[in-house]
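Name: Sodium:solute symporter family protein
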Amino acid sequence: MSSLYAVVLGVIVLSLLVVSLTRVRKVKTRADYLVAGRTLPAFVLVFTLLSSWIGSGSLLGGAENAYRHGFAALWQSAGGWLGLLLIYFIAPRARKFAQFTIPDLLETRYNQTARVLGVIAVLFAYTGITSYQLTGGGDILHLVFPTIITPVLGRYIIAAFVIVFTALAGMSSVAYMDVVIGLLATVTMIVALPFLLHAAGGWSGVTHALPATHFEVLGDFSLMQGLELLVPTMLLMLGNQAMYQKFFSAKSERDARVAVVGWIVGTVVLETVIVALAVFGSVIFPSGEVAQRPREILAYAALHGLPALLGAALMGAIFAKIMSTANNFLFSPATNLVNDVFVRYIAPDASNRRVLIVSRLMVVLLGIWSLYQSLHAQSVLKEMLYAYTVYSAALTPVILAAFYSRRANAAGAVSAIAAGTFVTVFWDAPFIHDHLPAIVAQRDAIFPALAAALLCLVVVSLATKPPRAEQIAPFAG
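Structure predicted for Sodium:solute symporter family protein:
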């Protein structure tokens, strides 16, 4: 069986390498590398958006939640769905703006300080997100080859693959690999669902084996716990730089909007299927190794609960989705360091060849930093919520204000980014945490950080001069 799984994973890696190598020849300029020459059609956009969003956060963190709490884990997914409904109206505006990164947007709408703080927030959040993709990929390799590859060695191997694939052709490589990965994952997960349901004894067997709370809207969560899953996910979706870069890469404003419709449908279907697979898996495998590490339930069910060929295909799809998300979230901060630091401040007249060399170097360095974080992280779910909160509180409010507020200004944006980042990073630090009332200290950082950011954005903007007309014009509907 290990040989079958090895062949499937090998074919996937080889296919992704071929896609990357075929796209390398088309990359000649900075725009080619960073935004695929702004040529991506709606079909490609749908799958690259879907693949960049559904990774370890859903396949590991979301599945772990579903294993423990049942369908109430969809609170995490629902945050993305709500965000997507709003994104439908943002996508054409983002394509019309047509820059390279979120810090480009922040400087145009606010000022240079907002750009620099935006780069810092993206680096904190996105290398954290990349790190737990490496953790998930390492776990899968260990499950398939338990006597050969340890989880830690698996992380090194995945990091090497991700760095190479991402560095080769940039956005063009990432986007077209995502088409292959998105199709594979969608088909295999949907096909696997009835097989696992049958193995769990059908729907009656599932409802009989699990607590009634697993099928309730809130489950065993309080409303506040549900919102602490929903809100960070929704705000990350609304401000997600990887998403905006895809919109900046779109062939047209129409392609950007059409892609969002496909993205909404695909995300709702796939995330519901992922939760259902984990719930059915919890019935089949209620104890043993997977109960100790429930984040591995999907991969474990593929290995032990499905026919060999389908199980290998599902394992390969999970592996590929994790790699795809790692590619996206590694590439995104690398573009920040190149576009928002190197080109903006160090070498504004750099040739395309020099920019491409530095871009690939940044991918390698940030990949190594993400691997370091992965080796020291204890919980995928905790790391996921931390990364989501940094980005959600620090950047999403000022990004949305750029498109929908004529009063938000540079001073308000800078103070909001700084406040959101500070509260998130230091929320659990003793000098803050030990002086808070117990009822506040036990909560996650999302609501305090978001409140601090919004308060600064509104109050400081109202207390200072409004933005100039030329700052607002590029974002008008």
